[in-house]
Specification:
Elements: H1 3-36, E1 46-55, H2 56-67, E2 70-73, E3 80-89, H3 90-101, E4 103-108, E5 111-116, E6 133-137, E7 142-151, H4 152-163, E8 166-169, E9 177-186, H5 187-197, E10 200-204, E11 209-214, H6 218-235, E12 246-250, E13 256-264, H7 265-275, E14 279-282, E15 289-297, H8 299-307, E16 312-317, E17 320-325, E18 332-338, H9 353-356, E19 360-364, E20 369-375, H10 376-389, E21 395-399, E22 402-405, E23 409-419, E24 427-430, E25 435-439, H11 441-451, E26 466-476, E27 479-483, E28 486-490, E29 494-513, E30 519-538, E31 540-545, E32 552-557
Parallel strand pairs: 2-5, 8-11, 14-17
Antiparallel strand pairs: 1-3, 4-5, 6-7, 7-9, 10-11, 12-13, 13-15, 16-17, 18-20, 19-20, 21-28, 22-27, 23-26, 24-25, 25-26, 29-30, 31-32
């Protein structure tokens, strides 16, 4: 079931319940008037009356005088009546007036006393026991508590059980609810602060007993009643406040819902802080009215929304909210924000000007950090922006290969035959990568001998110094890898590389000077010329989705 459905069901139940109670009340009034009409005939008579802008007292006095009724009207009731009745029963007119203006009738014999209806007090909501967050260290005598509207009776029982120190409460505090958060403080000090926070007082006896009782001081008692009413209202998830145009509520998780229509900011702060049991101090009272609706937010978030865009801010010190103008020194906050992935240089230029207004920002290069000084909400907003841009910057590695390319093709063949300077007894030479082979006399005679004897062929033999040399070679130009440098640069930045040297050459210029005697002036200027290999490249790395939620791959653009 959704939250909206649950809320609608609760509201429907409340409307039905309230409607049922109201109907029962009017049914009882009608029954009483019907019974009284047997002794007071005027209640059964017919009314012929038309009035406009007449006070309720005059209206009821006119009916009572015309029909012999005994009627008393509370003079504090300020209501003007505009009605027209024709042939209406007097008892029905009186019942209609009670319904129309939310009145009640007290019957004393035949006397009818009209007063404003006052709803009966709501029945207290039964307390549901929770696991109490209380710890005690018997080594250091330190007590820690984390309470939110918990039963005081159960709290002191748990404290006594953990510490073996007797804590006793006054009988009238058995149903008291207390709240407080204290971490690792001495036992007596913790009890004292718990009592103070809940408008109670504590005293110790010589026999090591601690007694908690009501604070009899008048001012503290009034504050206590206000807090108790607030706690009761919290249990109903609704606050009854006296500020016109303001409705606020708080749930069991201390989440606030505030609905204000043209209400003073100071009144909103006071009402919400009282409801949330927050301590605050005003350096200067916030001026102006506001209209807002905020649902399910913490007290800190509520204060940020309320004061955002105004000249006022807040700061928390020891669980006390200090509220005043942003320019006040006590309300300024100083914080160092360290970057994790980017360098701090020039990051200030990327922060929007609206966020930097009224905030002092300094670069701390050694710590790669920014030092912020200003109001707390602005610092939180700037820090959030810095975290959003403080992302990992991809480093692009570019492999460069430098090659010599020769695009040539050549073919060389030859045959050499001669006598003398024999190349060898058999044959020798190179078969690969080119053919360069010499054949000796013996090899040639062996080859000729293979053909002799076939038919009429008789080739004979060569002389001993005869030789043959065969040569054949084909060559083709290929690649020659010179170097493979690597370039590294940040994403979006240009990478460049230069390999070579700078050469200088001379330029000589001659100038003819003089009128009668002519002279020649020579000047030499050396100019440079770069003879190098330069490479420039710029790469962008971006992320693109592969189709599945949360699954991304990198792509590059050159």
């Amino acid at each position: 079931m959704s939250k909206l459905t649950k809320l609608f069901a609760v509201l429907s139940f409340c409307v039905i319940t309230l409607g049922s109670i109201a109907q029962d009340r009017f049914d009882e009034l009608k029954h009483t008037l019907d019974v009284l009409s047997a002794d007071v005939p005027g209640l059964n008579e017919q009314v012929e009356l038309s009035v406009s802008g007449v006070s309720l007292q005059e209206f009821m006095r006119g009916i009572a005088s015309a029909h012999n009724l005994n009627v008393s009207i509370n003079p504090s009731i300020k209501i003007n009546v505009v009605n027209n009745f024709s042939n209406a029963r007097v008892a029905d007119v009186l019942l209609f007036v009670c319904k129309q203006y939310d009145l009640d009738i007290n019957f004393i014999g035949s006397i009818m006393s009209f007063n404003k209806y006052v709803s009966p007090p709501a029945e207290p909501i039964a307390y549901k026991a929770k696991n109490l967050k209380i710890t005690y260290n018997n080594q250091t005598d330190f007590l820690s508590i984390d309470l939110k509207r918990d039963s005081l009776d159960l709290v002191v029982r748990e404290i006594t059980k953990l510490s073996f120190k007797n804590v006793v409460i006054a009988p009238e505090l058995e149903n008291e609810l207390v709240s407080g958060y204290i971490q690792n403080r001495p036992f007596a000090n913790t009890l004292e602060k718990l009592a103070f926070a809940n408008n109670l007082k504590i005293s110790s006896t010589d026999d090591n007993f601690f007694l908690i009782e009501k604070n009899t001081d008048a001012t503290t008692a009034n504050n206590s009643n206000s807090r108790n009413n607030s706690r009761t209202n919290k249990g109903n998830n609704r606050t009854a406040n006296k500020t016109q145009g303001l409705i606020l509520s708080i749930d069991d998780n201390d989440m606030l819902t505030v609905d204000a229509k043209d209400v003073s900011i100071a009144e909103i702060v006071d009402a919400v802080a009282t409801e949330a049991l927050k301590s605050y101090f005003l350096f200067s009272e916030p001026q102006g009215n506001t209209t807002l609706y905020i649902e399910n937010v913490s007290f800190d978030d509520f204060m940020t929304y309320l004061l955002n865009g105004s000249d006022y801010t807040y700061k928390v010190e020891e669980q006390v909210y200090l509220i005043g103008e942003r320019k006040l020194e006590r309300l300024r906050t100083t914080k160092m924000v360290q970057l994790q992935n980017r360098t701090v240089e020039s990051i200030i230029d990327y922060i929007p000007a609206e966020l930097k207004t009224g905030v002092d920002i300094k670069e701390f290069l050694e710590m790669n950090s920014l030092v912020l000084s200003g109001s707390t909400p602005q610092i939180i907003e700037i820090e959030k922006f810095i975290r959003e841009v403080d992302l990992v910057v991809p480093v692009i590695l570019i492999d460069v290969m430098v090659l010599d390319v020769s695009n040539t093709n050549s073919l060389s063949t030859g045959l050499k035959i001669g006598v003398g300077n024999r190349p060898g007894t058999e044959g020798e030479g190179t078969l690969y990568p080119g053919l360069d082979f010499g054949v000796s006399t013996g090899a040639i005679n062996d080859l000729l001998g293979l053909f002799n004897g076939y038919g009429i062929i008789n080739l004979g033999q060569v002389v001993p110094d005869f030789y043959v040399q065969i040569n054949a070679l084909e060559s083709e130009g290929l690649l020659n890898k010179k170097s493979t440098p690597k370039l590294a640069t940040l994403n979006g930045h240009e990478a460049s590389m230069s390999i070579g040297e700078t050469e200088y050459y001379a330029e000589t210029s001659s100038n003819i000077v003089g009128n009668q005697t002519i002279g020649v002036s020579n000047s030499i200027i050396y100019k440079s010329q770069n003879a190098d290999l330069s490479i420039k490249n710029q790469t962008h790395c971006f992320w693109r989705s592969t189709g599945n939620y949360g699954d991304y791959s990198r792509a590059f653009r050159f």
